[in-house]
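ping. complex inputs:
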Amino acid sequence: MSARNLLLLSSSRVHGHGYLEHARAQLEDLFKACHVKTVLFVPYALRDHDKYTALVRDAIAPWGYAVEGLHTKDDRGQALRDAQAIFVGGGNTFVLLRTLYQLQLLEPIREQVLQRGVPYVGSSAGTNVATRSIHTTNDMPVAHPPSFEALALVPFNINPHYLETDPNSEHKGETRDERISEFVAYHSRPVLGLREGTSVRVEGSKATLLGSRSAKLFQSDGGSRELQPLADLSFLLSQE
Amino acid sequence: MSARNLLLLSSSRVHGHGYLEHARAQLEDLFKACHVKTVLFVPYALRDHDKYTALVRDAIAPWGYAVEGLHTKDDRGQALRDAQAIFVGGGNTFVLLRTLYQLQLLEPIREQVLQRGVPYVGSSAGTNVATRSIHTTNDMPVAHPPSFEALALVPFNINPHYLETDPNSEHKGETRDERISEFVAYHSRPVLGLREGTSVRVEGSKATLLGSRSAKLFQSDGGSRELQPLADLSFLLSQE
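pong. complex structure:
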């Protein structure tokens, strides 16, 4: 796993910022360190792949990076092998994972990222599929993937867009914490609640919490604790 | 379908009321009309089946109804055939549906409800599984059912615990309306957004909105409209 080079964003949008703007320094650090000039974008979490790829292109082209959509490639396997960096965008996690299974892209992506060290950027659904499984997505299950097991680039689960539920709410639906705790109760696996504006940077066997907010770790024993900005998250990788 | 006799609740809990209390009149109307004295409760959406069955028993025993848990029966098929009424409780919709598939209970329940006219009460997850599919649940996918297709006691989808997202929120996760609209965009099927405290009563080919709040119908053409209390919903059954 020493080749692993990941940036897993909670979200692409953060209140008060333009699209991906809050993550610019994190993206540029990663891309510069790896001499990335062109990013291969995986747009399958949204319906309009051209429009989605254009959105990402418009956001990061001004920073000096070209963006190509994987959906435009005749030979997707070759496109992945040629990729300088892979960016999997957010949207619906179920649609994204089902498409990755349908197009048989899970193993090719895993190989590039884990064996060849190709940088992987995920946002929201793209972060969910980078983890062990999509069991902790917030999305509505509008599509049925053959399994919820995902890329497993890291051995724990993430809940993107994590937030505490308003304690004054009169709504009786389950809170986010109740939902995540339910996953932990069934699976005995840790979940990192990643607030908007934060991300996880993984370099080989080292993982770090980036961004200005804390993250909430739901431990496999049912407890939970807050992890502060720049916290060392490497212990979450050691379950491998 | 003339035998069909359903009460589909958005939730068992409503702010300011005890468990199931808001639905007492609706439940009693149904049970009295069908001479129900004992309810067969299906507790699989939560982890502790005994505790969950006791919760429901404590709620409705004072009204004069006995409650038995399906999980206590050696022969579940016989228990369903003997049932005076079937009540499927809420919890996690994915866990519930996976269990119904594992125990091969979908067809036996369908047969009792659609062919023999056994009354069916569902709440939250129990309402989701009563519809065509669980694609419009709010729950976290903590378990992977072999399919999202469900009992299809009605041919449309319901979103229980429906609520509008606070328009002043700075959170960038998708709103409930965006999630439901995404389902409609992929499937071109209508979804009834059922607010807490409301329910759908189905008698044969007639369906009615019960409760004191309106419901939001997401139409298969992408539009939406509000339906007022006591609205005739029979048109939603005519897709059969």
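The longest helix of chain A spans residues 49-60.
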